[in-house]
Specification:
With 200 residues, the chain is mostly beta strands. It is built from four helices and twelve strands. It is 11% helix and 38% strand. It is globular. The two termini are 27 Å apart.
């Protein structure tokens, strides 16, 4: 299931989870719409408030000041503090972690991830209390974290093919394909699929 499918099929009253600014505010991440100036000069993440395509499309890092942030940030986007720490993607099935993967972030930019490694569910954060009600409405939801803070909530499970291997290396246009290639169901921004590796 994609986020587009989830948006169409979910209960209308649950569509607030697609609002990434609202998620940031609930997760106590410093963030606001473009019209609210950043509190101080520095580097911030700038993202679309809505992005059903995934992969961090449209996100970037910007150096902003209170005087320039509204001018530089596009309409429909928001700014947030830069979070540090491990990036985890966790499926919760019937309120319990059922799949936990750790992301290896891009060397540059925010889109071309280097890989995702399946790890033990013992490393998954406990389901946040403010998301318990939404999690009871769906068999499986997916939550993404950076440094233990929620950054995204999805009303579907992780769509990546971890049944093929416990380490998935994205394959982009122009990459050499060495290993078991699994085609992406919906190629995005030049991502064709994955090399699936079994490391256990």
């Amino acid at each position: 299931m994609t986020d587009e499918d989830a948006y169409i099929s979910c209960r209308p009253e649950d569509r607030w989870v697609f609002d990434k600014l609202l998620i940031a505010n609930n997760a106590k991440v410093l963030a606001a719409p473009r019209e609210i100036p950043v509190p101080r000069k520095g580097e911030y993440i700038v993202r679309p408030i809505y992005n059903l395509s995934g992969l961090g499309l449209g996100a970037s890092k910007m150096r902003l000041t209170p005087e320039t942030s509204e001018v530089r940030i596009p309409l429909g986007y928001f700014w947030s503090e830069v979070l540090e720490g491990v990036h985890l993607s966790v499926d919760y099935t019937n309120l319990k972690p059922s799949l936990t993967v750790q992301g290896i972030p891009p060397k540059e930019g925010l889109v071309r991830w280097r890989g995702w490694a399946k790890i033990d569910n013992a490393f998954a954060p406990e389901l946040p209390k403010w998301l318990t009600n939404i999690a009871t409405q769906y068999k499986t939801i997916n939550i993404e974290y950076i440094g233990g803070k929620v950054i995204e909530v999805h009303l579907r499970g992780n769509p990546d093919p971890f049944d093929k291997g416990d380490f998935l290396k994205p394959v982009y246009e122009g990459d050499e394909i060495e290993g078991e290639f699994v085609e992406a169901p919906e190629p995005l921004v030049g991502r064709l699929g994955f090399i699936a590796e079994k490391t256990r």
